């Protein structure tokens, strides 16, 4: 217990310091040789600290701290060295196991006389084995970068790919490249290089280059009038063609032209309607089906920003460069203007840009609805990135508000989406809300007053991420005031949860980058000639990768060979198809993640390879038995008996029927049941509409799902380990670039266990 004197001293100390500090407020004065104001303040602070703070006592044992740090560092290096060695052993074993599998496959081709000779194959295998050993030796010496050790780096990236078969595919590609390097002379290599010279893709259309065209570029936000003015020019022409991104848009323009008294054809991948009583008519088509050999007065190419898409962008490039029309009207986003002007300057076409402004304002709200469905208003659109979440939201909203909710997402057939949009737009029913995917604005005019994002995290096929939310939110929110244009209502954008609203605000403040390059794809003739340099049986996916690597492309173009095309090529590799047939099937609309779609793809390709009758009823891989299913049989909660399973089966059947119809226009002699397929498709669409009216979905835990999705989208940070879900939720701030993930400093707990480092960091 302290004595009174000590107590007085302890009490007087702080008071004395306080009085002293008040009476010695720093008066900064510049003295000769004393430095500037900043240096004077620092010296004064040090003097105050030395005067009023006791000196630190010497702590025994602190002299040994450097030695302890060195020992810990040595132990850490030893541990990492052991882990690195273990990884190399496992990695090397996996690579050689996959290489043996590739060799067995190539040797099996000898029985069909499709591959390289056995002796030559063994010779190349021994040479490639030496190359692999050199790569692993460099890897053990920590030379693992793409520049220092390209073979090792590419195999390592394939090893860590989410799909297990990627490593085998990469080894197959590397081995074939190794054989090609030994087979081709410099003269042959030069010939192949010239063959894939794609610097001037506009020269692929010589008839179009003989014309003097005027390109009208209509750019602006959704429902600003750009498409309306382009279609007006089409209606006033003597002949013309419309090319749009979706079958439903092509059908809408087809009906519009027919209503105006113009004879018109409808050309899509799954449907063709040609007027019977005339040889002169307009055409309405999807972009991939644009007739490039006919001459028109006016052509309209819609959604020109799709020219940048790695899956379908080449269709827009071909339509823009190849359509034979005196006037070409293209409509889309502002970010395409610079690219189109550059392309027109390069090919000698005149370019006129028309800018449009939104007729009604669009703004982000300052508050979210905080998961309160009572705050929903008539005309609200709730946007989600998950089909499961879309259905769960529909059920929750209808139960909570007592009002109906339309539903729109990509897997639904276009006809069903149009029907749902009509229900939402009709003011005389109880469909007050719409729940939709981020493709809500593509091809549909919706009377939306407010857009509400259910989440800002999207699954891209590999992982959950949020960097693309800027583009997704803007494109979806452009519909927010579409129905308000004439009344000049304010279109609003907000989120379900407060923690997501910051990302939406950032998205609207940021500017989406301009499109700099147009996507192109090698013509079938180029691929066929390039493939002739390789032995029969060489996989098409390998040939396409080599084309992509060897091609020379102009500064305004980008050669895109999509992952879907390569996957389809690998699926069909074992079938005896020509290169042309393989390329045709690569553009078949296939849902790779739907087993029924992949099975149907193989069956349809088998029919073409064997030239057998492809009658619809004889192709068992098309699940026509799904027509006999009833919604009443799917009212359970298990995976196979819930209502979503019923809906997924109908959607899968619709996809397979569309595949059959698509091929029936390209192999009419094989797939002859076109009329029956159209009838089946209409039956499926009716059942889908009925199912959406009657289905009763389980509510699900949407809040916890959004939380898990956001946390999964974050890059790893050690501070995550010391925080519970509530803290993570509060501090979560999505960012696009690497750096500090946190809006303020986060606490670190004692005894926190660090998450094991990835083996990628070790090597």
From TrEMBL:
GO molecular function annotations of the record: ATP binding; hydrolase activity; RNA helicase activity
InterPro entries documented for this protein: DEXQc_SUV3 (IPR055206), Helicase_C-like (IPR001650), P-loop_NTPase (IPR027417), RNA-DNA_Helicase (IPR050699), SUV3_C (IPR022192), Suv3_C_1 (IPR041082), Suv3_DEXQc (IPR044774)
Domain Helicase C-terminal: 368-523
PROSITE patterns on file: HELICASE_CTER
Cofactors required: Mn(2+); Mg(2+)
GO CC field: mitochondrial degradosome
SMART domains, A to Z: HELICc (SM00490)
Entry EC number(s): 3.6.4.13
Catalytic activity line of the entry: ATP + H2O = ADP + phosphate + H(+)
The entry's keywords: ATP-binding, Helicase, Hydrolase, Mitochondrion, Nucleotide-binding, Transit peptide
Location of region: Disordered: 740-763
Locations listed in the record: Mitochondrion
Broad EC category: hydrolase
One example of a Gene Ontology biological process annotation: mitochondrial RNA 3'-end processing
Gene3D superfamilies per the UniProt record, alphabetical: 1.20.272.40, 1.20.58.1080, P-loop containing nucleotide triphosphate hydrolases
Protein name (database record): RNA helicase
Source organism: Ophiocordyceps sinensis (strain Co18 / CGMCC 3.14243) (Yarsagumba caterpillar fungus)
């Amino acid at each position: 217990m302290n004595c009174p004197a000590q107590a007085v001293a302890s009490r007087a100390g702080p008071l004395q310091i306080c009085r002293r500090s008040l009476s010695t407020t720093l008066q900064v004065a510049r003295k000769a040789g004393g430095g500037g104001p900043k240096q004077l303040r620092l010296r004064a602070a040090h003097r105050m600290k030395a005067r009023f703070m006791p000196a630190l006592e010497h702590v025994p044992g602190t002299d040994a701290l450097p030695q302890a740090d060195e020992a810990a560092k040595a132990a850490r290096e030893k541990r990492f060295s052991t882990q690195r060695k273990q990884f190399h052993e496992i990695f090397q074993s996996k690579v050689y196991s996959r290489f043996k599998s590739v060799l067995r496959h190539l040797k099996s081709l000898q029985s069909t006389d499709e591959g390289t000779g056995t002796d030559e194959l063994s010779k190349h295998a021994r040479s490639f084995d030496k190359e692999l050993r050199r790569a692993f030796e460099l890897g053990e010496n920590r030379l693992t970068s793409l520049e220092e050790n390209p073979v090792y780096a590419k195999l390592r990236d394939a090893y860590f790919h989410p799909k297990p078969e990627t490593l085998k595919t990469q080894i197959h590609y590397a081995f074939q490249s190794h054989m090609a390097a030994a087979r081709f002379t410099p003269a042959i290599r030069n010939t192949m290089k010239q063959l894939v010279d794609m610097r001037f893709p506009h020269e692929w259309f010589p008839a179009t280059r003989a014309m003097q065209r005027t390109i009208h570029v209509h750019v602006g936000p959704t429902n600003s009038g750009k498409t309306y003015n382009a279609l007006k020019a089409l209606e006033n022409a003597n002949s013309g063609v419309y090319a749009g991104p979706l079958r439903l848009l092509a059908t809408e323009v087809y009906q519009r032209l027919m209503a105006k008294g113009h004879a018109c054809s409808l050309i899509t991948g799954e449907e063709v309607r040609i007027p019977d009583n005339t040889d002169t008519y307009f055409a309405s088509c999807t972009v991939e089906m644009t007739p490039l050999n006919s001459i028109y007065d006016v052509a309209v190419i819609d959604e020109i920003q799709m020219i940048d898409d790695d899956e379908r962008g080449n269709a827009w490039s071909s339509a823009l460069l190849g359509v034979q029309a005196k006037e070409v009207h293209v409509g889309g986003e502002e970010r395409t203007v610079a690219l189109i002007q550059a392309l027109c300057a390069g090919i000698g076409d005149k370019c006129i840009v028309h800018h449009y402004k939104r007729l009604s304002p669009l703004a982000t709200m300052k508050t979210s609805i905080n998961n309160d469905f009572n705050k929903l208003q008539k005309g609200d659109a709730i946007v989600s990135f998950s089909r499961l979440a879309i259905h769960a939201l529909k059920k929750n909203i209808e139960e909570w508000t007592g009002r109906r909710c339309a539903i729109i997402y990509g897997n639904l057939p276009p006809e069903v989406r149009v029907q749902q949009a009509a229900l939402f737009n009709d003011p005389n029913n109880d469909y007050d809300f719409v729940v939709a995917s981020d493709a809500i604005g593509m091809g549909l005019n919706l009377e939306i007053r407010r857009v509400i994002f259910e989440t800002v995290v999207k699954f891209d096929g590999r992982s959950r991420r949020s960097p693309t939310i800027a583009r997704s939110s803007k494109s979806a929110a452009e519909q927010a005031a579409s129905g308000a244009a004439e009344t000049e209502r304010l279109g609003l954008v907000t989120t379900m949860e407060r923690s997501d609203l910051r990302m939406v605000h950032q998205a609207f403040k940021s500017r989406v980058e301009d499109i700099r390059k147009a996507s192109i794809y090698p013509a079938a003739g180029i691929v066929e000639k390039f493939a002739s340099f390789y032995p029969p049986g060489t996989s098409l996916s390998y040939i396409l990768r080599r084309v992509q690597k060897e091609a020379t492309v102009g500064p305004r173009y980008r050669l895109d060979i999509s992952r879907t095309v390569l996957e389809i090529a690998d699926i069909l590799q074992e079938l005896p198809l020509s290169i042309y047939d393989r390329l045709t099937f690569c553009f078949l609309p296939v849902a790779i993640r739907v087993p029924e779609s992949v099975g149907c793809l193989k069956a349809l390709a088998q029919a073409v390879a064997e030239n057998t009758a492809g009658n619809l009823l004889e192709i068992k891989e098309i699940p026509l038995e799904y027509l006999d299913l009833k919604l009443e049989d799917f009212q359970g909660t298990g995976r196979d008996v819930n209502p979503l399973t019923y809906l997924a089966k109908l959607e899968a059947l619709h996809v397979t029927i569309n595949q059959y119809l698509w091929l029936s226009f390209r192999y009419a002699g094989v797939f002859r049941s076109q009329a029956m397929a159209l009838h089946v498709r209409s039956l499926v669409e009716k059942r889908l509409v009925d199912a959406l009216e009657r289905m009763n979905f389980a509510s699900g835990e949407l809040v916890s799902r959004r939380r898990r999705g956001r946390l999964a989208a974050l890059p790893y940070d050690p501070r995550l380990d010391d925080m519970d879900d509530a803290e993570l939720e509060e501090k979560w701030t999505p960012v696009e670039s690497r750096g500090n993930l946190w809006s303020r400093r986060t606490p670190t707990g004692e005894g926190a266990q660090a998450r094991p480092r990835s083996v990628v960091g070790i090597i």
